[in-house]
Amino acid sequence: MRSSQLPILTFPVALACMFCSCGQSGSTNTTDSTQATVTADSSAKKYLSQPLVNHIYTADPSAHVFNGRFYIYPSHDTATGIPEDDLGSHFDMKDYHILSMDSIGGKVTDHGVALDIKDIPWAHRQLWAPDAAFTNGTYYLYFPVKDSLDIFHIGVATSSKPEGPFKAEKAPIPGSYSIDPCVFTDDDGKSYMYFGGIWGGQLQRWNNNRYDSTKGNRKPEELAIQPRMAKLETNMKYFDGPVKEVQILDEKGQPFHEKDNEKRFFEASWMHKYKGKYYFSYSTGDTHNLCYATGDSPYGPFTYRGVILTPVEGWTSHHSIVEKDGKWYLFYHDVQLSGKTYLRNVKVTALHYNEDGSIQTIHPTL
Ligand code: FUB
């Protein structure tokens, strides 16, 4: 990640409420130090949808339906004064808040702090994009965070309630690395984690599941780095076997090269299933697309099919896809409220399939 090209905007909070959907904002069980800095886009751009909440900054929304209700597991963006750099050090998040709502457009509840970095024994800094799962009567929160050596690993925390609070395990998931976990449970009850992110997400330093801090980003003519996956044990806390590469192939069955950065994987894995097909979706990072590829097995390979979401305002793009009552939704984020790349806000919009199973491309501005 790196700095946005966007201007920093300085509209007051009151004006922000004219642009954002205050009616959709939820109960604010907590206050946040960045609240006073919430700003609005002075260009009066027409956005496809409005922020789900505006009392805190939220990003990377992993949405699930638990007990008939939407639960959204986002990153909690705050301004901590860390300068922006190409490693994303300015994404300096310290806790998670979970949001929930009965229906799209309904009241959004912020359930307060669900997990704090100080309660994760091995964590040093930067709580990035989480995901959640439910099985065995337990809710699992998966999160990437840097350890004391500044290396990202993925941890897991558990709760009896979808909104937490969550209690973290004492150590990261053995064999885990990099960022952006997505946990998908198939119809047969087997669960898989997809993960990884290049550049600030450190995936370029991991080859054959070994860490090498000297490995830099791939050159344009080199093969693109592929995301990773592992089957989870039934206890959902360990990998059941070695981490594998996920093959994303072009329409001719060939892997992408780094120069194919409009289509190659960067970060933000998501898996969902539609009419028996597996849909692996992801962000292309520096070209800001959300793309998808489909396959016949949770292990892949996956064939590139197209763009789900064209670039949002901001540098990062991250999403989830979820179904409720026969309708499909894309949760995503942009920087409508702040204009700053590291102070994002989550949104939702309807997602539609064509007859052939392809996804209709969504444009985040009108
Ligand atoms: O929120 C921090 C990072 O930004 C996430 O892990 C990436 O997916 C990007 O959205």
Order of helices and strands: HEEEEEEEEEEEEEEEEEEEEEEE
Percentage of β-strand residues:
35-45%
Overall shape = globular
Report the radius of gyration as a whole number of Å.
19 Å
Helix tally?
1
The helix/strand class is mainly beta
Overall number of strands: 23
Largest sheet: 5 strands, mixed
Bound molecules: beta-L-arabinofuranose
Question: Would you tell me the overall average pLDDT?
Answer: 90
CATH architecture: 5 Propeller
Q: Which CATH class?
A: Mainly Beta
CATH topology: Tachylectin-2, Chain A
**Strand line-up in the sheet with most strands:** 1-5-4-3-2
Uncertain stretches of 5 or more adjacent residues:
1-39
Can you identify the CATH superfamily? Glycosyl hydrolase domain, family 43
Specify the helix fraction band. Answer: under 10%
C-alpha termini separation: 26 Å
Number of domains: 1
GO biological process, one term: xylan catabolic process
Site (Important for catalytic activity, responsible for pKa modulation of the active site Glu and correct orientation of both the proton donor and substrate): 180
Signal peptide: 1-16
Keywords: Carbohydrate metabolism, Glycosidase, Hydrolase, Polysaccharide degradation, Signal, Xylan degradation
